[in-house]
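Entry for the shared binder. Reason: the reviewer on the internal report wants the predicted structure included alongside the sequence.
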Amino acid sequence: MEPVEMTLQLTIDCADPQRLVRFWAAALRYVPQPPPEGYANWRAYWASIGVPEEELTEGAGELPESVVDPKGVGPRIWFQQVPEPKTVKNRLHLDLKVGGGREVPLALRRARVDGEVARLTDLGATVLSTLDGPDSYAVVLQDPEGNEFCVV
């Protein structure tokens, strides 16, 4: 059997997809994913491929609900609207690696991480904790809906 082509998409359940599209597009330096060419929005595209209206929530697809890496390197992230609120710690989270790795002096890694944390908190993230070891440094944050992620 021939191998199947595979791509990776990260899906994040949320209450307000547009809020997280704005946050994560800015946080990751991604862009909101436009609808396919020839379609006014994603809802129009989904209708064209036969997605039944009853499968779509009110307003779904009228504004972008996913972000993509403009360089085409990172995965697409889709913010899926769900009715239930987040109730527990994430089992999967993003690490935003800005420090440069262990070959970079710890003081410089700290400065890079702290600079990125300041940018992200200005965008609406909240700092939860700092992990400061003898040769490591990371900050745990949460996005505007409480999804945890790290800056390392």
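Summary line for the report: The CA atoms of residues 84 and 97 lie 30 Å apart.
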